[in-house]
TrEMBL record:
It comes from Chrysochromulina tobinii. This is Protein n-methyltransferase. Keywords: Methyltransferase, Transferase. GO terms for molecular function: protein-lysine N-methyltransferase activity. One of its GO terms (biological process) is methylation. InterPro entries: SET_dom_sf, SETD3_SETD6_MTase.
C-alpha cells in the first residue's frame, strides 16, 4: 500500500475538525511540507477555516514551502490524461480540468493525498448554489452579478456534461467550487532544476562512456563538446528562454497554501514557484505589518472586486480597495439622458465606435469611473468632439471633460438613490430566502463605492474645468 494509506482509511471514520487537521498536519510533515513560522489551522468566527499565528510573525516572512509533487496542477500546455477524452480536455477551462483531477484523486482509494482531500471544505455558500431568486440579486438591484452567475451556471453544466465518469451535479459543483476558491495561478516553467541536473548527469555519463568505448584521437574532445552542448542547452532553456519567455500559465491546487485566506490590502504578499527546490512557497506582504499571536495569517489573492469575491469565494471584503459598481450600458445611457437630454447624434456616435451592446457593463469606482465608462459618456454627451478624440478614448477639452465628470457623478448618485439601505435589504432578504448577512454586506459596500465615486468625480470636475 502507498504511504499514508492506513491513515487515509482512518480518516474515513474521523469527522471532527481536530481529527482531520491533526491527520493533515501529520501527513504534511511526512510529505515534506515545511512551515517556517509557528502557525496552526483554526476555525475563525468571521472568516471560517484559516491559519492562525501562534506567535508573532514578522512582515515579509516566508511562511511555508510545499513540494510541487503534492499539488494538483494544470497548465495551458497540459495534454489530456489517459482517463479523459481529448476533446473534453481541450474544451475544458482550467477550473474544469482541476475539478476533473480533484474528483479523480478523491475516487482513488490509494491516493497519497487523502489526508489533504479529507480536510477540504465539503460545502460552500457561493451564489452558483443559491436559489434562482437569490442568485438574481433582485433584492440589491445588481444585474451585473446576476448575469455573471447565470453564465457561470451554464458553463459549469456544459463542462459537467462532458466530464469523465458522469459526476453528479452536487459532486461537480463541489469540485468546481474548490478549484475556483482555492487555486492560484502563475507562469508555467516547463522544467525543474532537479530534472535539469538529471539531464546533465546523463549527458556527463554518456560523454564518459563515449570517450572510454570509442577511444582514439579526438574522442575525449568530441565527448566534452557534446557535454558542453548539453550544458549550454540547459542554461539557455532553463535560465534564459524557459522561465522568462514562456507564455504558458499554470493553475495550482496546493495543500496548506490553500488554507490561507484573502485580504486585498496585502498586495505584496506572494505565492511563488521556487525553481531550484521544485516547490511552491508563500511569503507575507512586507508592508502588511507583523501578524500578532492569535491573529489570522492572510495573503492577497490579487485585485479582486467584491463581485468576484462573492461569486467565487462566498464572502464580501469591507473597504475593498478594488471594488467597483458595475452599470449596464442601457442603464448608464438612461441615467446620462436623465441628467441631460442627449442629442440625436449620441447613439450614432456609439454605433460608429462599436459600443452597441446594451447588456455590456461599465464600472464606477471609488476613484471615479472606468475607461469604458468615461469613453461612453464622452461619446453620448459630446459626440462631435469625442469622434475627434480617438472615438472617446482620449480626454476632451477641460470644460467638456468637467461636464463628463459631473454627468457621471449624477449617474453614481442616481444608482445610489435606487438602491435599498442595508437594513431594508436585510428585511427583504428574510422574505425572499436570500442570504441576509452576505446581501447586507454586499449592498453596504456597493453604496460605499457609489458615494466615493460621486465625490471623486465632482472633485475631478472642479479640478479640470469650470
Amino acid at each position: 500500500m502507498r504511504q499514508d494509506s492506513l491513515l487515509a482509511e482512518g480518516l474515513r471514520r474521523s469527522t471532527t475538525f481536530s481529527d482531520l487537521n491533526g491527520a493533515f498536519e501529520e501527513w504534511a510533515k511526512k510529505s515534506g511540507i515545511e512551515k517556517f513560522e509557528p502557525m496552526e489551522i483554526h476555525e475563525f468566527p468571521d472568516t471560517g477555516r484559516g491559519v492562525r499565528a501562534t506567535t508573532e510573525i514578522v512582515p515579509s516572512a516566508r511562511i511555508v514551502k510545499v513540494p510541487s509533487r503534492l499539488a494538483l496542477q494544470v497548465n495551458s500546455l497540459t495534454k489530456s490524461p489517459a482517463w479523459c477524452d481529448e476533446a473534453c480536455w481541450k474544451a475544458a477551462k482550467w477550473d474544469a480540468r482541476l475539478a476533473m483531477m480533484l474528483l479523480r484523486e478523491e475516487q482513488d482509494a490509494r491516493s497519497d493525498l487523502k489526508p489533504w482531500l479529507a480536510q477540504l471544505p465539503r460545502s460552500f455558500n457561493t451564489p452558483v448554489l443559491w436559489s434562482d431568486a437569490a442568485a438574481a440579486f433582485g433584492v440589491v438591484s445588481y444585474p451585473a452579478l446576476s448575469a455573471a452567475v447565470a453564465a457561470q451556471r451554464a458553463e459549469w453544466d456544459a463542462a459537467r456534461a462532458k466530464a469523465p465518469g458522469a459526476p453528479s451535479k452536487e459532486k461537480w459543483d463541489w469540485a468546481m467550487n474548490v478549484a475556483r476558491s482555492r487555486a492560484f495561478s502563475g507562469p508555467y516553467t516547463p522544467s525543474t532544476f532537479v530534472g535539469s541536473l538529471s539531464t546533465l548527469f546523463g549527458a556527463s555519463t554518456l560523454a564518459l562512456v563515449y570517450a572510454l568505448v570509442v577511444g582514439g584521437a579526438g574522442a575525449a574532445d568530441q565527448a566534452f563538446d557534446g557535454f558542453l552542448a548539453a550544458v549550454v542547452f540547459i542554461l539557455c532553456n532553463d535560465f534564459l528562454i524557459g522561465p522568462r519567455f514562456s507564455s504558458a500559465k499554470r493553475h495550482v491546487l496546493c495543500p496548506w497554501i490553500d488554507l490561507l485566506n484573502h485580504d486585498g490590502n496585502l498586495g505584496k504578499s506572494e505565492i511563488a514557484y521556487e525553481y531550484f527546490s521544485d516547490a511552491f512557497a508563500a511569503r507575507l506582504d512586507p508592508d502588511g505589518g507583523a501578524v500578532a499571536a492569535g491573529s489570522e495569517v492572510l495573503i492577497s489573492y490579487g485585485p479582486r472586486t467584491n463581485d468576484v469575491l462573492l461569486q467565487y469565494y462566498g464572502f464580501v471584503q469591507p473597504n475593498n480597495p478594488f471594488d467597483i459598481f458595475a452599470v449596464q450600458q442601457e442603464m448608464l445611457i438612461l441615467d446620462l439622458n436623465a441628467h441631460r437630454t442627449l442629442s440625436a447624434e449620441a447613439l450614432p456616435a456609439l454605433a460608429k465606435a462599436g459600443l452597441t451592446d446594451p447588456t455590456a457593463f461599465h464600472a464606477l469606482s471609488a476613484d471615479g469611473a472606468g475607461e469604458s465608462t468615461s469613453r461612453l459618456a464622452r461619446l453620448v454627451l459630446h459626440p462631435a468632439a469625442a469622434s475627434q478624440a480617438d472615438e472617446g478614448k482620449q480626454p476632451l477639452s477641460p470644460t467638456a471633460e468637467a461636464d463628463v465628470h459631473r454627468a457621471l457623478a449624477a449617474v453614481a448618485e442616481a444608482r445610489l438613490a435606487a438602491m435599498l439601505l442595508p437594513e431594508q435589504v436585510a428585511a427583504a432578504a428574510l422574505a425572499e430566502d436570500v442570504p441576509r448577512e452576505l446581501m447586507t454586506a454586499f449592498i453596504a459596500e456597493k453604496r460605499r463605492v457609489l458615494e466615493a465615486s460621486s465625490r471623486a468625480l465632482r472633485r475631478k470636475a472642479l479640478g479640470v474645468g469650470a
